[in-house]
């Protein structure tokens, strides 16, 4: 996608990342795919979150979180967290990829861009069947997943998330 790029979080993006999280809070929405930034801001600091992000990158394979920046104005228009691991939780409920788009920037193709890039990262890490999940009622996310090649694999109630989840597979 022209005009946007994925970047690793850094101090230089602090205020833009905080603005991103605030936009969700102002609407009473939950933030997904932020590498737990929302939780860290409640319990700690952006700086501590950066340390967690660095630790995630040291995993084998790395588990990166990216900011999606619009180049024209530097706005954080989305975030994507990539987990190319094979734990039971990832394979059944969380999925290999989590993402979110700024509430005022939806329906502009950013989610599709981030998911396509995340699938490439998963493929490079050896993941052939990329698991993506979303709330059963999230038609927008389901549409993005299907557009990016996802096929519905299962629908079930998650005790952990206390909601019905749809699990999709993107074969790479």
Care to describe what's here?
The protein is of the alpha+beta class. The protein has a domain at 4-123: Gcn5-related N-acetyltransferase (GNAT) (Aminopeptidase, 3-Layer(aba) Sandwich). It is built from 6 helices and 7 strands, in the order βαααββαβαβαββ. The chain has a 4-stranded antiparallel sheet, sandwiched between helices. It has a 3-stranded antiparallel sheet with strand order 5-7-6, sandwiched between helices. A hairpin with a 4-residue loop joins β6 (151-158) and β7 (163-171).
List the helices and strands and how they pair.
Blueprint: E1 4-7, H1 14-27, H2 37-43, H3 46-57, E2 65-70, E3 76-82, H4 88-94, E4 97-101, H5 110-124, E5 129-135, H6 139-147, E6 151-158, E7 163-171
Antiparallel strand pairs: 1-2, 2-3, 3-4, 5-7, 6-7
By CATH, the architecture of the domain at 4-123 is named: 3-Layer(aba) Sandwich
CATH topology of the domain at 4-123: Aminopeptidase
Helix count? 6
The strands making up the biggest β-sheet line up spatially as: 1-2-3-4
Short description:
This protein is α+β, with helices and mostly antiparallel strands. It has a domain at 4-123: Gcn5-related N-acetyltransferase (GNAT) (Aminopeptidase), CATH 3.40.630.30. It has helices spanning 14-27, 37-43, 46-57, 88-94, 110-124, 139-147, and strands spanning 4-7, 65-70, 76-82, 97-101, 129-135, 151-158, 163-171.
């Amino acid at each position: 996608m022209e005009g946007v790029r994925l970047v690793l979080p850094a101090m230089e993006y602090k205020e833009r990342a905080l603005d991103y999280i605030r936009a969700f809070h102002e609407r009473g929405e939950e933030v997904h795919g932020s590498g737990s930034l929302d939780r860290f801001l409640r319990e700690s600091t952006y700086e501590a979150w950066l340390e967690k992000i660095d630790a995630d990158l040291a995993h084998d394979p790395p588990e990166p979180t990216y900011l999606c920046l619009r180049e024209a104005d530097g706005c954080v228009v989305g975030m994507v967290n990539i987990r190319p691991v094979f734990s039971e939780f990832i394979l059944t409920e969380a999925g290999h990829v989590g993402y979110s788009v700024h509430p005022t920037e939806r329906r502009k193709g950013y989610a599709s861009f981030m998911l396509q890039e995340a699938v490439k990262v998963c493929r490079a890490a050896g993941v052939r069947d990329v698991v993506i999940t979303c709330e059963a009622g999230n038609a927008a996310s389901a549409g993005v997943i299907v557009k990016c090649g996802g096929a519905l694999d299962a629908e079930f109630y998650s005790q952990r998330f206390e909601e019905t989840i749809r699990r999709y597979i993107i074969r790479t």
